[in-house]
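4.2 Preliminary Data

To establish feasibility before requesting continued support, the project team ran the inverse folding procedure on a target of 440 residues. The structure was first converted into the token representation described in Section 3, and no sequence information of any kind was made available to the design step. The complete token record follows.
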């Protein structure tokens, strides 16, 4: 326990601790100066809080030694003291799951100082060999997943080095084997497919309903005749997809947009926030900062998109008046109303998964109307619209720095890494152009 003594306008904090090497006890003292405007009782409480935090730091420094603490114990403390404070909720949950399910079974029980690069190699060899079970089916880990596991383990060991728990990070130089399945080429629309996709945003589709049997309130059966009806994609989804394609915004960025984020005069979308899923909470989501510091950006979009947004705003205002008190206002943590562009029927922010579901359905509905297989649109993901913008700009010789800026990547190297295949294609085409021009 810490000793707290009042000394004039300050408090003297004394903590007694056993020396790791001699076994003798040593005393650590600190002087705490409270806010002079606080009452004496509150000053005392502030000193007690300071002493408790100081004890915690000293305890960590004395017990978190590489030959005393296991990897699992250290990781749990790192998650508690750093992860919860600095990681967003979904990332924290993913890191915790990776450590518990993929890493701890291999060396979670080992002391930090005993873990070597051989343990890292053995773990990944084991993961690659055994794979994992999903819905009763044995599957192989993909390169992207293994890379994520390596990143998490590396972060933990790096923090252990900083905290002087260990001297070196045993996985710092580890490289994944070459035989690990590499990520497939990113999926995006070609220029022709992108044009077709924009056309079907306003297309009418038919839905056939066959004859079926129903029961009335008395339990008596009756038949409902089959019929055919037409439907279109709700306009707010057309706007959503246009922003993803022309602006290259991520799904979580687009769904977080409010009307205040749109500069109708300058054709600019201000990207200032994103939406994440709440771990363990069905349908739960929350606003957060964008993925990287460069993700906070202004993106210029064509007049076509701005015109669509103006129409959507008028329609939303009319709809809001039509449902009256059924409209549910959303407020931020400071009580300020959030006027989301993309909404549910009650005016609340749209669910994060809804646009992806609508996107997939739209492509499937269109493909049912096409006879030739080669004329159908590929079933890419919603994120593929972001890739489409990038690949089209790269094909048009747009500066890679400009592409990277629109995407909100952390740096240009990220853009180069993601779109390396398309850059190589452009380089090959350039060589062919030179050969044709010079004719040698």
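Position-by-position output of the design step:
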């Amino acid at each position: 326990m810490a000793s707290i003594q009042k000394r004039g306008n300050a408090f003297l904090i004394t903590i007694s601790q056993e020396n790791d090497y001699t076994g003798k006890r040593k005393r650590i003292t600190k002087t705490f100066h409270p806010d002079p405007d606080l009452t004496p009782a509150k000053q005392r409480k502030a000193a007690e809080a300071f002493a408790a935090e100081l004890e915690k730091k000293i305890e960590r420094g004395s017990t978190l030694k590489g030959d005393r603490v296991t990897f699992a114990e250290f990781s749990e403390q790192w998650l508690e003291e750093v992860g919860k404070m600095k990681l967003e909720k979904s990332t924290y949950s993913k890191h915790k799951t990776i450590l518990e399910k993929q890493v701890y079974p291999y060396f979670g029980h080992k002391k930090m100082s005993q873990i070597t690069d051989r343990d890292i190699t053995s773990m990944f060899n084991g993961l690659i060999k055994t794979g994992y079970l999903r819905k009763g089916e044995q599957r192989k880990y993909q390169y992207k997943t293994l890379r994520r596991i390596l990143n998490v383990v590396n972060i933990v060991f790096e923090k252990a080095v900083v905290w002087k728990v260990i001297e070196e990070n045993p996985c710092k130089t580890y490289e994944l084997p070459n035989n690990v399945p590499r990520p497939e080429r990113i999926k995006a629309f070609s220029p022709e497919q992108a044009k077709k996709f924009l056309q079907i945003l306003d297309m009418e589709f038919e839905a056939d309903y066959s004859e079926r049997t129903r029961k009335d309130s008395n339990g008596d059966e009756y038949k409902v005749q089959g019929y055919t009806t037409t439907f279109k994609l709700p306009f707010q989804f057309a706007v959503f997809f246009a922003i993803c394609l022309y602006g290259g915004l991520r799904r979580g960025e687009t769904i977080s947009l409010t009307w205040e984020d749109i500069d109708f005069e300058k054709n600019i979308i201000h990207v200032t926030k994103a939406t994440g899923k709440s771990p363990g909470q069905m349908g739960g989501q929350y606003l957060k900062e964008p993925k990287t510091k460069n993700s906070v950006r202004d993106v210029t979009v064509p007049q076509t998109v701005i015109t669509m947004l103006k129409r959507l705003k008028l329609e939303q205002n009319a709809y809001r008046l039509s449902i009256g008190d059924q409209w549910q206002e959303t407020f931020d943590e400071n009580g300020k109303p959030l006027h989301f562009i993309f909404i549910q029927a009650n005016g609340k922010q749209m669910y994060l998964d809804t646009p992806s579901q609508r996107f997939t359905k739209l492509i499937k509905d269109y493909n049912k109307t096409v006879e030739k297989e080669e004329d159908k649109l590929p079933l890419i993901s919603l994120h593929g619209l972001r890739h489409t913008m990038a690949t089209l700009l790269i094909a048009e010789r747009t500066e890679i720095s400009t592409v990277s800026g629109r995407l909100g990547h952390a740096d240009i190297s990220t853009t180069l890494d993601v779109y390396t295949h398309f850059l190589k294609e452009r380089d090959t085409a350039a060589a062919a152009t030179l050969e044709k021009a010079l004719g040698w």
